[in-house]
Write a structure and sequence with these properties.
14 helices, D-Maltodextrin-Binding Protein, domain 2, alpha/beta, five-stranded mixed sheet
Length: 374
């Protein structure tokens, strides 16, 4: 079976050339019916990152659910375009699809960061992914990408990420004053947030972080999780790892598709691409829980990393910094509408979540006494 990428415009041109030739017109569909459609999909992650494994969980499900009618050529960051350029690649049709996060195209419009790395409000990533699908977020995302920015894309969100660690430092940081002057890597509105707290921020893709630490371009950083951080070699350039933070507490993956490519597909294949995101979201969560927890133990037990929780002083400082940033962002009508929508959702939903949730830390301490350092 020969693989080929479906290109409707190319096919129509070829059909026009044969004109009235009945044999030529009838032969082409027969060939296409036997050949899978190849979707070129690039991620924003290095080939070695665990998130490439997560992307494969998506592509495997797409290929199996389509019965082989759709196959995915999955590529790492830099294979076609740079990590931060996948939105441009999909918009321009250089890529059919991408696996990324909205904050990576934050340079086009700061509102991109609201779909993952915006103000935390009090809701988790699960809360905010639910907002995307049930609270009006999807329509606001469509308005931003298609109406405001005129991008030729569709996007879906999946895998509610655990709150991201504050990150890696060479020494201890216990107060907001301790952060002053650090050259720190983060992305999106988190960069604005931490700059307002006295840090100097560089926005770098994951694959460039450790080399930047080694060259002294930065002297502290966060990326996302223990598994990615360990694979990057974070433990070789810093030994103090701070978990828990409000700078990026509610992010999800973004699955981007070129609108023309997607619209050309049969409805059942469109549904597979769309709802495959939901299937992969569950698989990604299970994979993350397994690997992140195991790798956190390896960092501490095998690599001499000191694991701490971020201090209440710094967490309080982050919330106060968000307050100031929110006031600035609300000057833009669209961004104010997004934040109003998120606040209304979190006020109702997180009230239920918190009131309904038992104290899991109490239960954990009961069965595994002395392990938590809260």
């Amino acid at each position: 079976m020969t693989e080929q990428k479906l290109d409707r415009r190319s096919f129509l041109r070829k059909s026009a050339l044969v004109g009235g030739s009945t044999a030529g017109v009838l032969a082409a569909p027969a060939v296409l019916a036997q050949s899978p459609i190849v979707m070129k999909m690039q991620t924003s992650w290095p080939a070695s990152d665990i998130w490439m494994d997560f992307a494969r969980q998506y592509t495997t499900r797409v290929e199996e659910m389509s019965g082989g009618r759709l196959t995915v050529d999955l590529l790492p960051a830099g294979a076609v375009v740079a990590a931060f350029q996948v939105m441009d690649g999909v918009n321009d049709g250089v890529l059919d699809a991408a696996h990324t996060v909205p904050v990576y195209w934050y340079g086009k419009h700061k509102a991109a960061s609201f779909f993952g790395t915006g103000p935390v409000w009090g809701g988790s990533a699960t809360t905010m992914l639910s907002w995307f699908y049930q609270g009006g977020g999807a329509e606001l995302y469509r308005e931003l990408t298609q109406d405001i920015l005129g991008l030729n894309v569709y996007g879906f969100m999946g895998f509610p990420m655990f709150a991201q660690p504050f990150g890696w430092f060479k020494g201890e940081v216990n107060t907001v004053a301790d952060l002053n002057g650090f050259k720190y890597r983060t992305v999106g509105l988190a960069a604005d947030l931490l700059q307002s707290m006295g840090m100097s921020v560089a926005q770098l893709p994951g694959g460039e972080i450790v080399p930047a630490m080694e060259r002294g371009v930065i002297d502290a950083f966060e990326f996302n999780n223990p598994s990615s951080d360990m694979r990057f070699g974070a433990q070789d350039v810093a030994k103090n790892y701070y978990l828990s933070s409000y700078h990026q507490a509610s992010e999800s993956f973004e699955f981007l598709f070129n609108k023309d490519f997607y619209d050309d597909l049969e409805p059942d294949l469109q549904a597979i691409l769309k709802y495959g995101v939901e299937a992969a979201s569950t698989a990604n969560t299970a994979n993350a829980m397994d690997n992140y927890s195991a790798d956190l133990q390896k960092l501490a037990n095998e690599h001499g990393v000191t694991v701490r929780r971020t201090s209440k002083d710094i967490l309080d400082g982050q919330l106060k910094a968000w307050d100031g940033l929110i006031t600035e962002l609300e000057q833009d009508d669209y961004m104010k509408r997004v934040m109003d929508s998120q606040r209304a959702w979190v006020e109702r939903v997180t009230y239920y979540e918190i009131m309904n949730a038992p104290d899991y830390a109490l239960a954990y301490e009961h069965y595994f006494p002395g392990k938590l350092t809260l």
